[in-house]
Structures are given as C-alpha cells and as structure tokens.
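Lecture notes, unit on protein representations.

Consider one protein chain, 184 amino acids long.
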Amino acid sequence: MLNELQIYQQKNMSARQQYFAYKAQAWLNYANHKDSMNSRSDVGVEAAQTAENILQALKNDKVEELALIEDIPSTSALMRPDLWATISALKDSDGIAVAPREMAFSEVALIWAATNQCARGWRESGIHFRMADRWLEQARQAYVNAHDSQTNVALQARIVRYYEAYAPLDSGEDTCHGQALSPI
C-alpha cells in the first residue's frame, strides 16, 4: 500500500490528494506499530481499514468526497484542544496546500496519542503528543511563511474560535469515547 500511496504524494497531485495519501500512510504506520506490539485491541485493524478506505478513494478519484474535518474515532478522544483547534483552522484556511504531509501526520499522531493515554496513561502518550505538536508547528510555520500578515491574523482568530469550541469537549479524563468535530 505504501508504494501505491507514494503516487498520490507527488507534487503534481493536488494538495488534497497529497494530504489524504499522507494520512493513509500515517494510519498504516499506526497499524504496523500496533501489529508489532501484538496489540489485542481492534485499533490496529481499524487504522489499517481507514488507510485502505483512503487509498480506494484516491484510486477511484473520489478524494473530494472525503471529509477534511473528520470525527475523532471512538477509540480516541479530544485531548489537547489547542492542537485540534490549530488543525481545524489550518484546514479551513487551506493550510493543506502548503503542508499536506505535516497536517496529515499531526492529525493521526493526535488520535494515536489520545488512544494511548486512554489505554495506558500519560507516560505512553507523551511522545505522540510531542510528535503531533512538532508536525503541526511545521505546518503552521509553512502557512505563516506563505501568507501575508493580515491572512495570518485571520488564521490566529480562527484558531481561537476553534479552541473556544473544542476546549469544553475535553473532559480532562483519560476515557476514549470519540468526538464529533464540525467546522465553525
């Protein structure tokens, strides 16, 4: 699957195709990690299926039908609403056009981190939250460098609005129940 996904990660593809190809790759990385850990949960299987679904949409030229802002799966939770707010605001601002790989990897890393925190606590999730934060900071910096100050101020305002909407959704508990996310 990774070889097939590389076709859609090339610069001659649309940013949306690149984003979803990288997202599928991130889900495959997650599934492979779960498999290598001999995980007994269904999380790895669900991650592999998500990657397969994305690949099929890419192959069938149906990537436009895939939602940019997707719900957090039931095996995860909305933790770190600050990072989720930045992801959603960048998506709304066409941040995928400047950093499709970083956006995709940060999103899956956030889901992975929360899943780990629910299952095994903060010691198991910290590395993935830091990874998501680094990927997202790279995406935000690429966006800032590609736009003028007025556009960047608008992005920051959008991040704040998303944060205000997402912060109450973080229960502060280490329980995974998924979360419906919607554009504001």
